[in-house]
Every structure is written in C-alpha cells, then in structure tokens.
C-alpha cells in the first residue's frame, strides 16, 4: 500500500486576518472597512477585539471605498475589504477618484479573487480586476502568492502611505516564497532558475508553475519560474533579464489575459526585447459552471496545462 | 482682471471676529458678491466653467469660510480642522475664489484657472490646491468620503466637523443614499450635508428629469435631522450651520436660485455652463457691485 503525500497548504485569508489584528494591536490608526463581508473577509476576530474599528457599511461598495478615503483623510490607516469582483467592479470610479487620484493611503483588499467562487458563476469571478486596476494611475498592485507573502505584504501596505490594491486568495496554497525574504515591494522573485523558458506567474498559479517546471525538467527543458507579487510597479529588470536569457516567455494568471499580468509583461518585452510570448489565463470568455479546481483545469492552469503550454510555445 | 473687492476683502479671521449681525451680514454679502464677480471673470477668461451653480452656492461657501469653519489657511492639513468637501466639484471656480478669499492661496493664482498646467483644474484636486480635501468632479463622491472623515474624527475623539456641499441633481447618484444610510446608522452628528437646492441640473429642471421631491422627507426617512433654509440668507445659514442635532447627522436643504445675483442668469437652465459675452459680463459685474 502506498501513501500519497499531499503538499502542505496554507490559508492566505487567515494570514491576512492575523496580521491585520497584530498591526491593529500596535497601532490604533488601523481600521477595517467592509461591505457585509465580516465573515468572508475573515474579520470576525478583528471585530471581537476592535468593535469600534470595524466599519461595516452594509452592501454598498461605492460608499465603502469613499468611507475608506475619508478615514484616511482623518489620519487613519484603512483596510477596505470586500469580494474582489464587487470591490473593483462596483467601485472603480471611487477607487480612481477618491483613493488613487486623491492620493489617499487606503489599502483595498480584494478577497477571494480569480475564480475562487467558481460555482457561483462569472458575477462572482474577479478576473477583470487586474486589468481594471492596472489602468488606474497612482495605484500599487500586490498579489501575494502564499501566506508568508500575504503577511509581509499586509505589513508593507500598512506603512506605505500610498494607495494600494491587494488580492487575498481564498483557497489554501502551498508555501512558495523564501521564508527569510517573503515579500519585497516591486521585486519579482526567481523561484527556480532555468535557461530555456521563463514562466511568470502571480498568485495561486505560482505553485502550479513550479510543478510545471518539475515536469519540464524531466523532458530536459529548463524553466525559470518567476513569482510576480508586485504587478504595479512591475520589476522590469527581472522581466527583461528573463526575456534575454531564456528567449521564451509564458505568463500565468488566474485572471483574464486581456490586460492583466500577461499584458503587463508583454508590454515590456515587446518594447525592449521582443521574444515569443504566450499568455495563460482566462481568455475573453465567461467561465462555465464549476468549482475552482475544475475551472483552473479548464483554462489550462494546472501544472500539466502550464507545461503543455511551454512545449507548445517552444515548438 | 480680478474684482478689486476680492483682493481687499477681509480675510477669514476678520470676518469671524464680527459680532454685530448686521455688519456680519453685510460683510458676507459683499464677500460673496466679490467672489461671484471673480468667478465670472475666471470663467469668462477660461471660456468654460459652471456659472449657474457657482452663483447659487457662493453664499453657502462664503458663510462657511467666513463664520463657521475651524480651519487654518496657514496649516491646511491641521488634524483638528473642520472639513469642507465640495461634492459638486464642477463649481470649482466658486470654491477657488472662496479659498483665495479665506487666505489659502493668493488671489493672483485665480488668473491661471483652467490654463494649461494650472493647479486650478476645472474640478478640484487636493494635491495641487491647499484647502481642497478630496478630489471631486464625478458626482456622488463627496458624501461617502465625508462619512469616512466623520467616523475617523469620532474614533480619534477629534472635535472636527464635516460639511459636504451637494448639488441637488447630484442626489440622483445612488452612492449618496448609501452614505446617508451609513451616516444615520452610525449617528454621525459631526456631519452636515448641505444640498444646494437650485432645482436645475445640466439639461433641465430636476423635477422634470428624475424628481427629488419630497426631498426633506427623503432625508428624514433615512434618519437625518433636516433643516430647510434660505440658501442666500447669511445669518440664517450661519445659525443652521452652527447647530448640531445630538446623535443624528444634519441635512440643510438650502433653497437657492441658480445664477443668483445676475438678472439674466437667474433660474435659467442654459447658464449651467454657458460663458457670458463681453456685454453680459459688464452687465453682470455692474449688478454685483450694487
């Protein structure tokens, strides 16, 4: 009888919630704002400890983001938490005008991004968020890949004094970052080296990209895997070095390929060092019904799917 | 080019120090009309702007900066200051004229209004203009931000009060009513919304577009203390702006006349963003000097 060992996985939302409470204990300017999402944003413990510092505005995302901007005006450090599709989709103009254009240090936390709410359908999929937020000036965009990065990114954002948009994943993921150095703002991290192709991944697909690199190694293809945990500003030096040194680029994201990570990397590569490039993610379609695993498989976002895309790219 | 009245107008500190009601009224009336004249000249020079709403709201702005707000033009980011949030940001020129009068920057700056590279955009920007609290222009943004400031002031036990100036047509944006619910739910008695109820929007009368009446009842139903005032009566405005209803946010519905003070503009929808001819400008300035 053989035992299959599943990789140990960790909860990013839990890491987010615990870090926010730690920060709030040390700094009474930390406040949370949400839209009837105390449970889904993992803010139950925060509410118990800091009932006055949780502003639940109800189901009203435009108001929620404006309130966040006002709290920042009053000298507080607000974390505005809501499911990704509604935070970005319903309040894009508030994010643009009240937060980014007004240069207010609000941390916008998109919970359960990508197709985390797979079965609930495209209304609840947050796949357009990266494209929408990338188009907004003066907004830093963070996508931590694992709980250690989530903790570090939350700490960084609390002190950044800038408008920040951050994705906080719903499903457990394996640890992928170096525990000693889990998040450096603006830096893309090379997780595994290789000289035949570079796989840029962000968020949940990062561990899958590492899996793909393992599969490719067995076929003699050396894949460099880069975790892009800061989408804006993008680490241009690491992107260009990879393009020059490996000659092929694949991007992988749990988001639409129209305007997201792939487009961001494509813009740099095309301008400075054009190489064959392919984007893996959700093409411009609404996803079928299914859970997160099913949908990731459907769109080729498994280790096998990513490896196959690499081989296709190099042929 | 600027009205000499504005250059010589008493600064904020001087006006607030006036205790005689008649002298205060006359000072505020002159200051508001000086700002009207300045605004007319700014819009005439730039060839764009929103004069109708500027004229209707200037008595409210002048009363706020002249006799109500605790602000320090020398220290615009003073943490304990009161906030004025100009949600109807298209009337930026009225706000700029008022801020210059209150001493936040030199009236000379007003000459650059809408010029290429100017800090004085057609809609206010806080990073460029001292005294602007949040960037506006798109409608329906000011009240949610005001709610956030009011919550923040309560959390930090600051004495700051928050005033949000809303256009009446702006209330057709649903975000206002989201914010109205939050403000009442949280008992934000440090928050006052002021509706510039001039009954005209860009294309037609509000009541012919998407009617707002009964407006006072709407706010009351949302849990607000509501006071209806003459939006051109400085003393009445001052008393209403100073008053607070314990445990509830207050909405002042300021009944105003769009184009107020200029005979051919008053209550005329086309003056939402029309630019006067040279003859019209001369007539208007003459009327305002009375």
TrEMBL record, chain A:
The EC number(s) this enzyme carries: 2.2.1.1
Entry superkingdom: Bacteria
Major enzyme class: transferase
Protein keywords: Transferase
CDD domains named among the record's database cross-references: TPP_PYR_DXS_TK_like
GO molecular function: transketolase activity
Presence of the UniProt keyword Transferase in the record: yes
Domain Transketolase-like pyrimidine-binding: 10-176
UniProt cross-references to Pfam families, sorted A to Z: Transket_pyr, Transketolase_C
InterPro entries: PDH/Transketolase (IPR051157), THDP-binding (IPR029061), Transketo_C/PFOR_II (IPR009014), Transketolase-like_Pyr-bd (IPR005475), Transketolase_C (IPR033248)
Keyword Kinase: no
Name of this chain's protein: Transketolase
Organism: Kineosporia succinea
From TrEMBL, chain B:
InterPro entries: THDP-binding (IPR029061), Transketolase_N (IPR005474)
Listed EC numbers: 2.2.1.1
Gene3D superfamilies given in the database record: 3.40.50.970
This protein's UniProt keywords: Thiamine pyrophosphate, Transferase
UniProt enzyme class: transferase
Named cofactor requirement(s): thiamine diphosphate
Record's keyword annotation contains Ubl conjugation: no
Every Transketolase N-terminal domain range: 29-279
Top-level taxon of the source organism: Bacteria
Family matches, as CDD domains: TPP_TK
UniProt GO molecular function: transketolase activity
Family: Belongs to the transketolase family.
Protein name according to UniProt: Transketolase
């Amino acid at each position: 009888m053989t035992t299959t060992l599943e990789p140990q996985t960790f909860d990013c939302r839990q890491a987010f919630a615990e870090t926010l409470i730690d920060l709030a204990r040390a700094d009474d300017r930390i406040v949370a704002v949400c839209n009837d999402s105390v449970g889904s944003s993992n803010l139950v413990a925060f509410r118990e400890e800091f009932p006055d510092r949780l502003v639940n505005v109800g189901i009203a995302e435009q108001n929620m983001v404006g309130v966040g901007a006002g709290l920042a005006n009053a000298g507080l450090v607000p974390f505005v938490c809501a499911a990704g599709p509604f935070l970005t989709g319903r309040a894009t103009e508030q994010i643009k005008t009240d937060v980014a254009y007004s240069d207010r240090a609000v941390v916008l936390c998109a919970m359960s991004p990508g197709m985390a709410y797979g079965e609930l359908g495209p209304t609840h999929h947050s796949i357009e968020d990266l494209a929408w937020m990338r188009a907004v000036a003066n907004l830093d965009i963070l996508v931590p890949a694992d709980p250690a990065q989530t903790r570090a990114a939350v700490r960084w954002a609390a002190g950044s004094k800038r408008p920040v948009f951050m994705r906080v994943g719903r499903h457990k993921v394996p640890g992928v970052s170096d525990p000693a150095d889990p998040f450096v703002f603006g830096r893309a991290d090379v997780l595994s080296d290789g000289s035949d192709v570079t796989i840029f991944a962000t968020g949940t697909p990062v561990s899958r990209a590492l899996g793909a690199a393992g599969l490719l190694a067995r076929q003699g293809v050396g894949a460099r895997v880069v975790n892009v945990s800061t989408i804006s500003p993008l680490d241009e030096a690491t992107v260009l070095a990879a393009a020059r040194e490996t000659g092929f680029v694949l991007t992988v994201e749990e988001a639409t390929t129209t305007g997201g990570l792939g487009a961001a990397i494509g813009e740099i590569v095309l301008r400075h060092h054009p190489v064959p490039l392919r984007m893996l993610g959700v093409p411009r379609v609404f996803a079928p019904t299914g859970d997160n695993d099913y949908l990731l498989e459907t769109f080729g976002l498994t280790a096998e799917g990513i490896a196959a895309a690499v081989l296709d790219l190099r042929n | 080019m600027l009205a000499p009245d504005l250059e010589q107008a008493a600064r904020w500190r001087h006006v607030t120090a006036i205790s005689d009601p008649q002298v205060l009224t006359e000072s505020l009336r002159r200051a508001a009309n000086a700002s009207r004249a300045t605004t007319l000249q700014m819009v005439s020079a730039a060839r764009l702007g929103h004069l109708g709403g500027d004229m209707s709201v200037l008595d409210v702005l002048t009363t706020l900066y002249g006799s109500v707000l605790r602000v320090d033009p020398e220290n615009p980011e003073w943490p304990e200051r009161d906030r004025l949030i100009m949600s109807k940001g298209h009337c930026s020129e009225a706000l700029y004229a008022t801020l210059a009068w209150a001493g936040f920057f030199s009236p000379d700056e007003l000459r650059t209004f809408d010029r290429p590279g100017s800090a004085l955009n057609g809609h206010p920007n806080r990073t460029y203009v001292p005294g602007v609290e949040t960037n506006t222009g798109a409608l329906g943004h000011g009240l949610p931000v005001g709610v956030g400031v009011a919550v923040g002031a309560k959390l930090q036990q600051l004495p700051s009060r928050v005033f949000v100036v809303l256009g009446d047509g702006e209330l057709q944006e649903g975000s206002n009513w989201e914010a109205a619910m939050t403000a009442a739910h949280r008992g934000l008695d440090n928050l006052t919304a002021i509706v510039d109820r001039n009954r005209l929007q860009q294309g037609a009368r509000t009541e012919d577009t998407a009617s707002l009446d009964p407006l006072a009842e709407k706010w009351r139903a949302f849990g607000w203390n509501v006071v209806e005032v003459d939006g051109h009566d400085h003393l009445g405005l001052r008393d209403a702006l100073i008053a607070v209803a314990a445990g509830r946010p207050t909405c002042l519905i300021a009944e105003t006349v769009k184009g107020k003070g200029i005979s051919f503009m008053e209550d005329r929808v086309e003056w939402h963003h029309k630019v006067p001819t040279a003859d019209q400008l001369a007539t208007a300035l003459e009327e305002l000097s009375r």
